[in-house]
Amino acid sequence: MNKKSFRETLESGEFTITAEVGPPKGTHIDEMFHHIDLLKDKVHALNVTDNQSSVMRISSLAVCQIIKDKGGEPILQMTCRDRNRLAQQSDLLGAHVLGIRNVLCLTGDYITVGDHPQAKPVFDLDSAQLIHMVKSLNEGKDIGGNELSGSTDFYIGATVTPESKPIEPQLLKFEKKIKAGARFFQTQAIYDIENFRRFMDYARKFDIKIMAGLVLLVSAGMAKYMNKNVPGIFVPDNLVDELASTEKGKGLAKGVEIAGRMIRQLREQKICDGVHIMAIGREGVIPEILAAAS
Amino acid sequence: MEGECHFLEGNIRAKKRVNYTKGLLAEVKIEPERLKMFNMGASDAKEFAHAADEMTKIAKEFGPSPLKKIKNRKRPAIRRIQ
Amino acid sequence: MIIAERKTFDEIKQIVGDAHKILIVGCGTCVAVCMAGGEKEVGILASLLRLDAKREGRELEIIETTVERQCDKEYLEPLAKKVSDADVVVSLACGAGVQFLAEMYDTKRVLPGLNTRFIGVAEHEGMWTQRCMACSDCILGETGGICPVTICPKGLLNGPCGGTNEGKCEVDNEKDCAWTLIYRRLEKTGGLNNIKKLFPPKRYDVQTKPGKVIHPAYEKGEGKAHE
Q1: Chain C residues within 8 A of B71 when measuring between CB atoms
Q2: Would you list the DSSP string of chain C?
């Protein structure tokens, strides 16, 4: 395998593209297999979510291994919701020996929003502490300060919400994540390029890579819903109007066009270092988005 | 009238307490409608008479108090649990 | 103080079972103030049990009593006679009081009438909110007197999660985001530098259950003076 790794690609300054695979709830994995086959050679790496939205699913670690087996490169998402520091570290050591080299560290949604609302929420660490712990494993020590016989070698990722309101506490945490050892960031979905450009003007002073998060829009209703209900996501009026004036049944095509256009602008104007595409159940159209972006 | 109590907020508070007490009655399976609060002025004789009539009607519809339905049975032997 | 709520009547009725003589013991401290287990609430529960028994034609005798505190032996000792006369005891104290009462009278069934909720404050009349998790490692000095361990559902120590929304929490948009509150408070009091450092993971060893606190100057017992 002579292909450049995700880390090498992103660190080399090449515009890098990642997408996301959501493991299914249950053991039928045909559809996920199909998406992995479809995307593994079209993007630089595939994130695998960790019990996304607090809904119990196949483990991120297992699906990362499947992606590797198929010749793709996975990014292991790890939240703090379901495992304490022991479980997180043993999974990280396990991920390393399986050849997984990218970790995205997240807090995780709260447990009551998911399908096991009565379960015990763990949150032993927070995302900044998790990042610090991964860095420590990379340096040959566990979080308790004990020597490891063989360290890990993870490329450490984190998330940031550029549209968070208020922004100051969010940036405080962003800077702590950088200090703790995060090397790349995948942002929450952004739609307002000018707002994002302002965020990047600030973020450029840090020695990190930033990939803009893109969630595929499929209708004006979805855009309005996200504006109202999803904290940290802001779809500007011009995009809502553009979707609203789209012929019925063409919403998805319009969403693909918008995503493609945004990727092109982010790349051509060198606004950020890459994009992370979240198609949420419509992974099949990602190749079309990439075609629209080229 | 509600909110126009001589003791300022007294009847608003009383309303909350009465609603709470209706809930308590429901917990022990006594019809909560058997308790009702009416607001009226000290000199509203007509309103008072109406309220009394209404409560009488409600009570008649429900029939005798559920507390009186069953004649007291003989007290069973106490089983002490150690 | 400790905040509690009465269990539903159905649940109390079920655990009391077919007892004929019930002693209800209120607690005159925390749970009296939050109107869950004081003298008045003892009276209400006694009335409910009596009404219910009467409706079902059952004989029932209830003794009502309220002590200063159920978490101190000196207040529980005088209950001996009343406890021994009863079939069961329903304690309207927090879980600590119920256990202490049950421990002192360990041949009697002592049942809880409340669910203990949290350590909190009276926000206003009739409303109490949680303020402390009793984590045994207080960081309020650095977080502007606002506890992220308690006020943030995730207990995050290093800033807000991505779900923070205009100062509200993603878990419940009626509740404030702890980290927005902390940030704003420290802006006013000049302590923002406190929270720029990376807080280490919380120590859970210090809160290994069951906790025990000894005051060396006052501890009575085996007669040993601590060094």
Answers
A1: 57
A2: -EEEEEPPHHHHHHHHTT-SEEEEEEESSHHHHTTSSSHHHHHHHHHHHHHHHHHTT---EEEEEEES-SSSHHHHGGGHHHHHH-SEEEEES-HHHHHHHHHHTTTSEEEE-EEEEEEEEEEETTEEEEEE---SS--TTTTTT--HHHHSTT--SSS--TT-BTTB-SS-TTSBPHHHHHHHHHHHHT-GGGGTS-PPPPP-GGGPSSP----TTT--SS-PPP-
User: Which residues does C contribute to its contact with B (CB < 8 Å)?
Assistant: 8-10, 18-21, 44, 48, 51-52, 54-59, 87-88, 107, 109
Asked whether at least 3 C-beta pairs link A and B within 8 Å, the reply is no
Q: Would the CB atoms of B76 and C55 count as touching at under 8 Å?
A: no
Q: Is C139 within the bounds of a domain?
A: yes
Q: What is the H or E stretch that residue A220 is in?
A: helix A220-229
Q: C110 and C22, same structural domain? A: yes
What is the ipTM score, two decimals?
Answer: 0.93
- The alpha carbon of residue C103 is apart from the nearest alpha carbon of chain B, in Å, by 14
Kindly report the CATH number that applies to the domain delimited by A14-216+272-281. Answer: 3.20.20.220
Q: CA-to-CA distance for B2 and A286, rounded, in angstroms?
A: 62
User: B13: which chain C residues are within 8 Å (Cβ-Cβ)?
Assistant: none
- Angle (CA) A80-C165-C146 rounded to 5° is 70
Chains that touch C (3 or more CB pairs under 8 A): A, B
State pLDDT tens for residues B11-69: 899 999 999 999 999 999 999 999 999 999 888 999 999 999 999 999 999 988 888 76
**Looking at C118, C147, C172, which one is the last position of a domain?**
C118
